[in-house]
Amino acid sequence: MALETIQIQEKLVESFDSVVFEFKQERDLFSFEVAADKITAVILFLKNDPTLRFHFLTDLCGIHYPDNDEEHQFAVVYHLHNWYENKRIKIKTYIKGENPEIKSISNIFLCSNWMERETYDFYGINFIGHPQLKRILNMDEMISFPMRKEFPMEDSGRTDKDDRFFGRTTDNY
């Protein structure tokens, strides 16, 4: 029997009650939200449950919502895949903007190690318990996080990005 989204939802609500919420079907992707302090428990449950078997972490990424209230300024999104049933789910959790941090799942899915480092590198989200949380793509000396909305789009001091060099000018020829 194929794994249905209603089964996933019922098992999660039965085990975690109001910690999981906002269930919805977005095209072919079943998604829901989880309270940030329970994310590791929910992911571990999804992986270890003999019916659900979400054994593969496809992706982990961050999102910055600067216009949201303080409690919801950052989100971490997890995509899990059940290979047996070819079922994918998306889990979203919101975290505070002042000091964005969440527990690492690198002990549950080893592949999350680099995904968490990349999310830290670009958004500054601290993954508590990560074995080596440091920059992965940007320079170690960088003090800002380039995917945050307050990061400037262009370096105003660069001359190679001058619009005149690309034919974009308001001058008449």
TrEMBL record:
- Presence of keyword Nucleus: no
InterPro entries registered for this protein in UniProt: NADH_DH_suC, NADH_quin_OxRdtase_su_C/D-like, NADH_UbQ_OxRdtase_30kDa_su, NADH_UbQ_OxRdtase_CS
Ranges of biased composition (kind: Basic and acidic residues): 153-166
Gene3D superfamilies in UniProt: NADH:ubiquinone oxidoreductase, 30kDa subunit
Its biological purpose is as follows: NDH-1 shuttles electrons from NADH, via FMN and iron-sulfur (Fe-S) centers, to quinones in the respiratory chain. The immediate electron acceptor for the enzyme in this species is believed to be a menaquinone. Couples the redox reaction to proton translocation (for every two electrons transferred, four hydrogen ions are translocated across the cytoplasmic membrane), and thus conserves the redox energy in a proton gradient.
GO molecular function terms noted in the UniProt entry: NADH dehydrogenase (quinone) (non-electrogenic) activity; NADH dehydrogenase (ubiquinone) activity; quinone binding
Where is the protein found, in the record's own terms?
A: Cell membrane
- EC main group: translocase
Question: What cellular component GO annotations does this protein have?
Answer: plasma membrane
Family (UniProt): Belongs to the complex I 30 kDa subunit family.
The membrane topology noted for this protein in its Swiss-Prot or TrEMBL record is: Peripheral membrane protein
Give the catalysed reaction(s), semicolon-separated: a quinone + NADH + 5 H(+)(in) = a quinol + NAD(+) + 4 H(+)(out)
EC numbers for this chain = 7.1.1.-
- Alphabetized UniProt keyword annotations: Cell membrane, Membrane, NAD, Quinone, Translocase, Transport
Q: Which domain of life is it from?
A: Bacteria
Task: Tell me which residues make up the NADH:ubiquinone oxidoreductase 30kDa subunit domain.
Answer: 33-155
Species this protein is from: Flavobacterium xanthum
- Give the chief site where it resides: membrane
Q: How does it assemble?
A: NDH-1 is composed of 14 different subunits. Subunits NuoB, C, D, E, F, and G constitute the peripheral sector of the complex.
Presence of the UniProt keyword Glycoprotein in the record: no
Mind telling me which Pfam families this protein's record contains?
Complex1_30kDa (PF00329)
Protein name as annotated: NADH-quinone oxidoreductase subunit C
| UniProt-annotated stretches for the region Disordered | 153-173
Q: Which positions carry the signal peptide feature in this UniProt record? A: none
- Which NCBIfam families does UniProt cross-reference here? NuoC_fam
